[in-house]
Amino acid sequence: MLWVMLLLLSIPLFAQPSCPATPAWSPCDLVFDLEANEKPDAVQLRAEFRSPHHRTYLMQAFRDGDRRFVIRFSPTEAGSWDYRLSSSIARFDGKLGQFNAAESDSPGFVKVANVHHFQTEDSRPHLWMAASVEQFLTMPRADFDAVIAARAKEKFTHLRVTLDANADLREAAERIRAINARGLTADIMFAAIPDDWKERERYITDAVARLAAFNITWAGFPQYESVPRGRAILKDAGAALKKFDPYQHPRTTMAEGTSAALAADGWMNILGYGTTDANVGGVEHQFFQSPALATGIKNTHDLWNATMNGQYPAEGAGEYMTVWRDFMAGNRYWELEPFFGVDGGRGLALDGVEYIIYVERPGPIEVALEHHGYDVVWINPANGERVKQKDYRGERFTGEPPDNAHDWVLHISRESEKARMKSYKFESRVVPVQEITLSGEKPAFDIPEPEENEVSMSHPLHFALKVRKDTRATRYLWVEWTAEVAADGEGYRVIGTGREGTLKVPVSIVKNFPAVLSLHANIVNANGKAYSVDRIFRLTP
Fold first, then answer.
1. Which has the closest alpha carbon to 486: 519, 532, 517?
2. Beta bridge partners of residue 62, listed in sequence order
3. Spatial separation of the C-alpha atoms in residues 376 and 380, rounded to whole Å
4. Looking at the predicted structure, is the pLDDT value of residue 275 above 70?
5. Tell me: the pLDDT tens digits for 519-535?
6. Is 156 within 8 Å of 184 (Cβ atoms)?
7. Is 22 helix (H, G, I), strand (E, B) or coil?
């Protein structure tokens, strides 16, 4: 753009305070005080920042007191930055400024990468491990500082915080600044977002103006399914975040079950799960090309099942979380994908390099490998105890955990090969994008139950999946059952898991009766192949 050079020749640089020697990726506040004749309620003020490499960022001002406005901005690279103001105040409008950003050792903000994973702006992989902070703004500041110090010591990389409807956003910004100072990212949830669209946009633009310059992500509602019109509100709020946040911080929402029902709305680039059930997370990993977070983690079983689903932990506390972090940090976690060549456990793998097998119920294990020599270690997921086994060379490893007292993690890896793979480029494998096999003329599965074509909200329904032909691939199946009333626009809900059972249609997805109910069985077989089978029903109260 030429506007900076042209205006610099004709207009003196703006004399307001700037951002002297601000490190890259650190927030700087440009402060603007109004004069006596200037009415604060009618002020519009924003700045367009231009980086040394000509990237532009548009930031809105926020009101900070009766007659003071602030534009908060984080430079994303070192060097000389220019900015140009636009304002309803004539003495601000069109004015220019400059500042220099200093070099920084910060890795930069987090972003989505490699389909199911994350990296930071310096192109290094990012290991997402989050814990929630209860009473984010109400606990005494000394207690808050002690909490974030403890989480940093436990090696968490994210802290999830909640803004209540009447939150003090000035104090929230200062506490998020403290989280960032510990090297952690703040994941921001909203306890409430205004239902009125004008109020909603004002609320979101104010939150973005105050908080986007920090190292954050947007985490939506705690459980969006329980919020009336939750999908519609999140769609508008997410679109506003996407529009006004110049840094494009990752966006998601937390869920009781799964937020994947909102993926088609276009604003969300991370999926949120309140369950670690493989019938939900493991299945949807094969259906959606987005990273996933799991909040339903209370023990090692939840943590490692979420990991095998391809999810990153967004909840948890205790030694087992630090054990997970230390183990995963030593692997090429940003390239791992669910692996199905295993009996007796669940797997992740970067084929030919490393295989991570979770054995929830100790017993014989068999793993299909590429033919190489491998290091073999059993790991206690509760405390990190390692039991080294004899090195293995071949294509089919068999063995058993050291004991059956608890769950185990088996690590089969080529450590010497990993040492040679020093590049952090996300290029060691092609991430598969699976083509889902739909119902057709020769379906692999049927839905024989419910038998009738009309179902009632008032009666639990028995569901069942029929396998047309039993094969080795059908020796076990993950099955997710979802229901949707498309005309009412609330998206789908998970209403059952497994081959058969009882389901109940939730009242939150239907507004008008009679309705057309779509029942979907999403299936992943023992080879990792994905299928989807549908039936349509008439739904009555």
1. 517
2. 70
3. 14
4. yes
5. 999 999 999 999 999 99
6. yes
7. strand
Element (H, E) at 153: helix 141-153
**Are the C-beta atoms of 95 and 85 separated by less than 8 Å?**
yes
Q: What is the DSSP letter of 439?
A: P
Q: Give the pairing type, strands 68-73 and 28-33.
A: antiparallel
Q: Using one digit for the tens of pLDDT, what is the confidence trace for 18-38? A: 778 899 999 999 999 999 999
The DSSP symbol for 429 reads S
Q: How many CB atoms lie within 10 A of CB 288?
A: 16
- At which residue do the structure tokens 């939506």 appear? 220
Question: Measured on CA atoms in the order 191, 197, 199, 201, is the torsion positive or negative?
Answer: positive
Which residues lie below 8 Å from residue 430, measured CB to CB, with a gap of 6+? none
What is the reported pTM?
A: 0.93
Confidence label for 461 from pLDDT (cuts 50, 70 and 90): confident
Mean pLDDT of the chain, nearest integer: 92
DSSP structure class, residue 76: S
| Angle (CA) 419 425 426, round 5° | 105
Work out the percent of the chain whose per-residue pLDDT is above 90.
84
What single letter denotes the amino acid at residue 158? H
What six digits make up the tokens of 195?
Answer: 């239902």
Name the helix (H) or strand (E) containing 366: strand 365-379
First to last CA, the chain: 60
